[in-house]
Every structure is written in structure tokens, then in C-alpha cells.
């Protein structure tokens, strides 16, 4: 199949996982009713809990995670493929993984991806973000076969590391998902240009379901869930409201863009400063 319909679910996640299950499930049902083949939800869709100790107390391992179980059951009920942007998975007494799941139309876990790049920044919005204090960074990049395309997996802050997207594209990805909880400050400055740049550089579709609005402890996210085609055109933009947006993915556009600008075949090695460390390169292999 050269064409399929993707839906971005844009939501405003709360502290209580049960509240988020109810709200996001309703949006997933809406997306399916509108004809989506693949539904994508944002990063940390199950819980936004800024307080570290509370987050660790609420997080569960995969085997007993109520959000994962609920969305797997919903995907099977609706007969739809679902990309859970990420949920907080307990991996140690003092650490979680910011982990993404691709669920097939039978409710089976097809792929997992744990966020590689930790958001340790102070962006000037009055908040301090230190993901590495709470989350364990992932170490493996993932490309997975779906009924429609080869899908590359990434999460939020990953978008600022172009070598990861290059490696995903060279591994065969035609569509790359980047579910996010982008801050409002960085979103206003960088969101659209980063998504378009990664699409253009690699000749891929970029699909980014996003959190929006004000969350616990005054944290604010930007919204604007996007679908960008391989030529850098924005096919859908959700703005700042909670809801569902759809776009048609025509995979022939990947071939067309790469034929016009075949930059994936033009990469070269060179002598000089080691601008990207081997440790970071390994994270994208």
C-alpha cells in the first residue's frame, strides 16, 4: 500500500493516569471513526508528574502498567495500529524509562523504543528540566516494519540530534514519528523548523503528536502536532487545541524527494575534528 492515513492525537495530560486513559481513549476512538490507519499519541501520554518522587511512586513496570494495558486493549477492540508516544516505565527503584510502544491491530506490542537523549535544560520559562535525574536513557535506535512503511521511532528532544534521523533513514525509515511534550518557549522558537529540517534532510515524513496547554506545576507545552512531507511541506498542524488531526501519507513522495535531492547517497567520511563522538554515534546505530 503506497498510501495510508495517520492521525495525531493532541492532548493535555494530567497527573492521574486514569484521567489520561479516559481522555486519550476518547480521542483515539474519534481518530478511528475518522478513518485513521495509524494513530499516534504524544510523549508522556499516561502521566505528566513534575515531582520526581510522585512520578516514581506512580510509575509501573510494563507487566502491570495500566496505561499500556488499556491502550493495548483499545487497539485490539478498534482493530487499529496505535503508536503510544511514550509512557513512564519503572525500570529501577529510582529510575524510569521514557518508553514508546507500537501496538498492532490485535493489541500486540510490535516494537519498543526508549528515549535516547535526555532533556537536561533550562530554557527560560521558569522551569528546570532534568530528565536524567529520573529517567534512564535508551541505547538503541529502532526501525520497524508496518503494513504500510518502515517506521523510525524517536521522542521529543531527539529531534535536535540529526545524526539519529540520518541513521534511521539509512536503515530504511520512510516515516519517522517524534511524539513530544515540547515546552512552549522552545516550541515557539524551534518546533516547526526542526520538524521540517529533519524531513527535508532525509526525505522522510515526520509525524509528531504533541502535548498542549498548561500542566501540573505550571508547565506549558506548545501543541502544534504536525505531519510534514519529505519536501518539507506541512500537511497538518493541530494548533493549540486538544483534538485529532489527520493527514494522508503518500509514500511515493519519499521516492520523489530522494530522487530530486539524493543526499542520503552523498554522505562522505572525512579527515578532521571528530565533531560527533563515537559514543553518541553508537546511540544511533
Characterization of this structure:
The chain is α/β, with parallel strands linked by helices. The protein has a single domain (3-267), classed as Carbon-nitrogen hydrolase (Nitrilase/N-carbamoyl-D-aminoacid amidohydrolase). Helices cover 29% and strands 27% of the residues. The chain has eight helices and 16 strands. The chain has helices at residues 17-33, 52-58, 66-78, 131-134, 162-170, 184-202, 252-260, 278-283, and strands spanning 3-10, 38-40, 81-92, 95-103, 109-114, 120-121, 129-130, 142-145, 150-153, 175-177, 205-208, 212-214, 220-222, 226-228, 234-237, 243-250. A six-stranded mixed sheet has the order 5-4-3-2-1-16. α1 packs parallel to α3. The longest helix has 19 residues, at 184-202. The protein starts with a strand and ends with a helix. The mean pLDDT is 94.
SSE arrangement:
Blueprint: E1 3-10, H1 17-33, E2 38-40, H2 52-58, H3 66-78, E3 81-92, E4 95-103, E5 109-114, E6 120-121, E7 129-130, H4 131-134, E8 142-145, E9 150-153, H5 162-170, E10 175-177, H6 184-202, E11 205-208, E12 212-214, E13 220-222, E14 226-228, E15 234-237, E16 243-250, H7 252-260, H8 278-283
Parallel strand pairs: 1-2, 2-3, 9-10, 10-11
Antiparallel strand pairs: 1-16, 3-4, 4-5, 6-7, 8-9, 11-14, 12-13, 14-15
Helix pairs in contact: 1-3
Amino acid at each position: 500500500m503506497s498510501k495510508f492515513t495517520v492521525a495525531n492525537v493532541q492532548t493535555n495530560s494530567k497527573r492521574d493516569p486514569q484521567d489520561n486513559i479516559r481522555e486519550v481513549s476518547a480521542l483515539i476512538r474519534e481518530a478511528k471513526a475518522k478513518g485513521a490507519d495509524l494513530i499516534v499519541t504524544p510523549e508522556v501520554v499516561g502521566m505528566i508528574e513534575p515531582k520526581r518522587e510522585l512520578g516514581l511512586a506512580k510509575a509501573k513496570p510494563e507487566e502491570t502498567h495500566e496505561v499500556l494495558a488499556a491502550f493495548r486493549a483499545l487497539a485490539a477492540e478498534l482493530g487499529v495500529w496505535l503508536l503510544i508516544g511514550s509512557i513512564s516505565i519503572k525500570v529501577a527503584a529510582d529510575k524510569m524509562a521514557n518508553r514508546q510502544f507500537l501496538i498492532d491491530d490485535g493489541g500486540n506490542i510490535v516494537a519498543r523504543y526508549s528515549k535516547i537523549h535526555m532533556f537536561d535544560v533550562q530554557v527560560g520559562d521558569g522551569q528546570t528540566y532534568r530528565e536524567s535525574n529520573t529517567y534512564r536513557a535508551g541505547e538503541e535506535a529502532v526501525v520497524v516494519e508496518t503494513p504500510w512503511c518502515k517506521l523510525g521511532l524517536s521522542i521529543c528532544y531527539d529531534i535536535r540530534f540529526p545524526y539519529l534521523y540520518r541513521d534511521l533513514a539509512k536503515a530504511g525509515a520512510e516515516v519517522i514519528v517524534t511524539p513530544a511534550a515540547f515546552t512552549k518557549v522552545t516550541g515557539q522558537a524551534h518546533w516547526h523548523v526542526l520538524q521540517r529540517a529533519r524531513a527535508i534532510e532525509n526525505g522522510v515524513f515526520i509525524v509528531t503528536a504533541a502535548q498542549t496547554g498548561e500542566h501540573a506545576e505550571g508547565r506549558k507545552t506548545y501543541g502544534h502536532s504536525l505531519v510534514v512531507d519529505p519536501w518539507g511541506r506541512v500537511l497538518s498542524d493541530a494548533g493549540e487545541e486538544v483534538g485529532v488531526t489527520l493527514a494522508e501519507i503518500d509514500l511515493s513522495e519519499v521516492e520523489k524527494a530522494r530522487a530530486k535531492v539524493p543526499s542520503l547517497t552523498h554522505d562522505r567520511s572525512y579527515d578532521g575534528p571528530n565533531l560527533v563522538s563515537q559514543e553518541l554515534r553508537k546511540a544511533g546505530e
